[in-house]
Amino acid sequence: MKGILVSSVIALLLSFQPVNAETVQMPNNSSSVSIEIPSRGMTMNGVEEHFGEPEAKKDAIGEPPITVWQYSNYTVYFEYKNVIHTVVNKS
User: Fold this and answer.
1) Contacts of 77 (CB under 8 A, 6+ apart)
2) How far apart are CA 62 and CA 68, in angstroms?
3) Residue 88, exposed/middle/buried by CB under 10 A (0-12, 13-18, 19+)?
4) What are phi and psi of 48, to 5 degrees?
5) Partners of residue 56 on adjacent β-strands
6) How confident is the model over 56-91, as pLDDT tens digits?
């Protein structure tokens, strides 16, 4: 009985140890210059009319077909004929 009590007290005391954690600072990715980019749901025709001809077009691959258009400042990803994501290129 005494052994169980001592073990319980030690376990209880060990559970109150301070926890150390490091705070990691992440760089701020927001740019002071904002650019207009295609939004999710836009069609290929709408993107081309509003933003012009892309510098490069990669053929659709996979199922569902994913097409990639590359512009100088960003890359646009399409699923079928609609924008699913736009990524700003690193400077």
Assistant:
1) 66, 67, 68, 83, 84, 85, 86, 87
2) 12
3) middle
4) -65, -40
5) 70
6) 999 999 999 999 999 999 999 999 999 999 999 987
Q: Give per-residue pLDDT as tens, 4-38.
A: 888 887 777 777 667 777 888 877 665 556 889 99
Nearest-CA neighbor of 47 among 72, 69, 80? 69
Q: Which two tokens stand for residue 5?
A: 């009590």
Find the Cα–Cα–Cα–Cα dihedral 68, 90, 26, 83, rounded to 10°.
-20
DSSP annotation of 70: E
Starting at the earlier edge strand, list the strands of the sheet with 82-88: 56-61, 66-70, 74-79, 82-88
Q: DSSP E strands: which ranges in the chain?
A: 56-61, 66-70, 74-79, 82-88
Tokens at residue 53, please? 């001809």
pTM of the model: 0.65
